[in-house]
Every structure is written in C-alpha cells, then in structure tokens.
Amino acid sequence: MALPKVIGTETEYGIAAVGAPDFNPVLASSLLINTYAGALRRIRWDYEQESPLRDARGFEPVQVREPTEEDMGLANVILSNGARYYVDHAHPEYSTPECANPRELVVHDKAGERILERSLLEVDRILPPRQRLNIYKNNTDGKGNSYGTHENYLVDRQTPFGRIVRDLTPFFVSRQVFTGAGKLGFEATWDDSRSPAFQLTQRADFFEAEVGLETTLKRPIINTRDEPHADPDKYRRLHVIIGDANMCEVATYLKLGTTALVLKMIEDEFLPDLTLLGPVAALHEVSRDISCTTHIRLADGRRLSAVQLQWEYLEHAKKYVQQEDAGPGHAELLVRWEAVLSALEDDPLSLHRELDWVAKYRLLDGYRERDGLEWSDPKLRLIDLQYHDVRRDKGLYYRLEKSGKVERLTTDGEIERAVTEPPEDTRAYFRGQCISRYQDAIAAASWDSMIFDTGQEALQRIPMREPLRGTAAHVADLLERSPDPTTLIDLLQG
Amino acid sequence: MPQEQEQKKAQKKAGGGAEAEAGQVQASKKGEKLKEEMDEILDEIDSVLEENAEEFIKSYVQKGGE
After folding, report:
1. Domain A7-415, second-level architecture
2. Where are the domains of chain A?
3. A89 vs B contacts (CB less than 8 Å)
4. pTM for the full model?
C-alpha cells in the first residue's frame, strides 16, 4: 500500500538591485531575509542529519562538502509557519513547511510569495534612496543561468529506485504541458539558434541527462539526492528539480497533485512501462511546441503527443483511485486533470485562466500584435520577467489576478494565515508551534529535529523522524498543557 | 481519447445552416469582447512596466543557485 504523500516546494527567487548594478546578490539576499526574520535569526539550523551528496542509487558521497551559508554567517531562519527561509548560493530561498495535500501546498507556496513581498517592503526602508530590490519567482535570467524550484515527495524506501526512474521520466517529460511557466527564447547550450521563440517551460533548456545527482550542471530529469529528512530506513524524499516556478494556483496544484498520485501508483506497481526513446530530446521537443501536438517515441513503438501520454497516466489514475485508493481530494484532482487535458487537446490557448505558459503567451502575443513588435523585442522580454514579480502592484501575474483573469483555488485570508501558521496535519505543526510558543528556548531546528536550551547543562534534542507525527491531532493538547518548554520536554519524555 | 471528447468534437463538426450562422455572430461578438478585455490588460501593463526595458533586461543576471 502506497504511503501518504507528504509534499513541499523549495523556491529560489531571482533577485535584482535597481539603481545598484554592482550589488552583491548573496549579501542582498541575506539582508532581505534577516530584515524580515528579526529576532528569529538567533535560532540556528541544525545540520546534523543533512547529506545533500548522498545518492539514492546507493553511491557514497565523493566530494568534500563546501562551506555552508551558515558558516559564512548568512541568513537561515525557521519561521512560525514551519517554513525555512534562507540564502542558497546567490538567491533568497523559501522552503514551504511539509503539507499533506496539494491544495494546502498551494496555500503555503503562495504564502512564500507574500513573505518575499513583505521582506522587500521592510528592506526598502533601510536601503539608500533610489535603490531597491526586485524579486522574481521564475527560473532563468534569460542568459543561460537557471535557478530551481524543487518539489519534494515522501516515498517508500522499499520502492526500487529503478522503477521510480522508469515510470516517472515519461511523466515529467509530458507534464510540461500544464506545469510550464512559459519562456521567451531558447537557452540550451547545444542550441546555437538563439531563437527568440516562446516555449512552454523555463527549465527544459537546462536539462541534459536522464538520471543523476547534479543540480547545477548536466541537470538530470530524475535527481538522485538521497537525503530523507526523516527515518532513512522507511523513507526517501524524492527531490524533483525539473519543475518550473508557477504563479498560477491551478498549475501548482496540478503539478504537485498529479505527481504525488503517480508516485503512489509507482509504489503500488500500478503503471505499465511507458519508457520513452530519448527522453532528454523529447523533453526539449515538448517544451518547444506550443500546439502540444508533437509526437514523441515510446520504447514500445508507439508515437504519442505529450497530452496523449498524460491521458495514459490519467486513465490509470482513475482506475487506481477507484480500485486502490480513494484518498481525500483525489476525485477533485482527477476532474481538474481531465478538464485541463481536454482543453489542451481542443485549444491549449483557452487555458489562460489556469496555466502560466498560456497566460503569459497571451500577454506577450497581444502586446506584440498591438505594438507591431518583433519577438526579440526587449519589451517582450521584460513582460516575460515581470510576470513573475512578487509585488502585487507590479507583478503582471498579480495584475491579472486582481482583475479576476486567472482562476484562484485559495483565498487571501488562507494565504495570510499561512504566512504565520503551520499546516495542522504534518510535523510542521509541531515545529511552527514550538517557534511561536518557545522561541527563546530553541537553540536550533531542522526538518527532523528541534533543539531546546532550557538552561540545563545539556541541550535537549527532540527528533521528528516521522513526517506525519507532531500534527495538531497529536500534540495540540500537549502544547496547551505546556506553558514552558521544560514542561513540554517532560511531557514528551514522560 | 475518452468518448466524451470524441462526442464533443463530433458536435463541433456537425450543425449547419442557420445554427452555424448564429454561432458565427456569437463568436464574433465574443471575439470583440475578448479583444476589448485584452486591450484593457495591455493598457494596464503599460502603466506598471519597468522603465527602459532594454537596459533593465540587460542588467538582470543571476549567477549561482540550486
């Protein structure tokens, strides 16, 4: 029986300094986060269990770990909503708390945008006049430099990694038709065309391998980082690096929801072999075809469009939900998935309320036509970038949202709550509540631990190796009965 | 392709005469409305777009990540 899918996203945001061309993006990111975090800066990140170079295929790490951002004194904070907000290389990065379903994830992913926006407002007050920072939730600078939006899924350690690779690769190649955030121009290193044409995804150009550990060069469709942040004997955390940063709530919901359901089917050996011939080339072909009709080749001899391949997954998912797993929210997900595939088949451009690549394409094409611009015009490239601006008065996605031109799945109230409050049905609840209640007594924290300093000689480490324990149902009462951290630790140990 | 889909497509292809003409009138009205809506969106973009697009785009460079 497949495991419940605990999920989360990590988004590296693009950062620019207007009026200060020589700015240092690392320090600017750190300033942004520290200004927002205030007193929470004091709590350290607990690195004890981290091993980003461990490989899911069983290889041992071969590189010496580089100094972490923490070593360099850069921002790295845990928020009261259970999220992690930190500097990753030269970007501010926001990792959502663990969520138990895709709709909750959408709320928390959006809360990340609000936190970045609020950070900008606060940092604005301390920057010199005529300087400001801009933040973009996208994945490329349009000059061949990409940064990631990673997804994480809890999977069963027992599931052979080879099966995950076999069944997930064709899914990742084909899901681009609804996960793409849209991009003007081709940036692949092998491509000398410098074509300014529009493609479905921001990320496809940067992928060159089928399977591997790398995330910054020779990026693989399936990333093998094996760092579960949970009981390693029972769990993997599948680290997915191939997705785009989505602004549209429907796109985020479908991206996480369908992938989680496909992973359940993989765990239960429910899927047939849909292996592609040349998945890397197919990935690029699908991204570069906005009609969504290009046929890609399967190892079984068939030639299917990405949408047809998605229908195969959907038909199996329907059977799976009927026969094996009528989990909450699955029916709703299937309805949405089917509606989007139908529309992609009929007229992809009709999905401008649901999908980022379509919403963006419509803006670009409309603007181009009105002003008689070439596709290579810098104004169009600016629209492509500013679509992702997190400021609600400047970001073009948000202008569409404000006038009701994109579909919402959440409310502003829910998102606002998620800026400070954790999800209730994962261990993020315990983490977030501890931060709100006992902030001064927490020395460090991580995904799977809380370390308390209650004034005793030794620090007290509370392990959290089970992502679905520490929920409101488990610990709300315990927390209510603990006016101070010493009582909490006594109750937990008693 | 599921049956529902095929039926929808078949319905689209069928129909003719007056019905089709009415459909065309409706379609062009809908088209006009879409165009108006689009013009509004584009005007709005003009009002918020960063100044000096060429320079702005040139200076947006991101190094490092993941």
Report:
1. 2-Layer Sandwich (3.30)
2. 7-415, 424-493
3. 64-66
4. 0.92
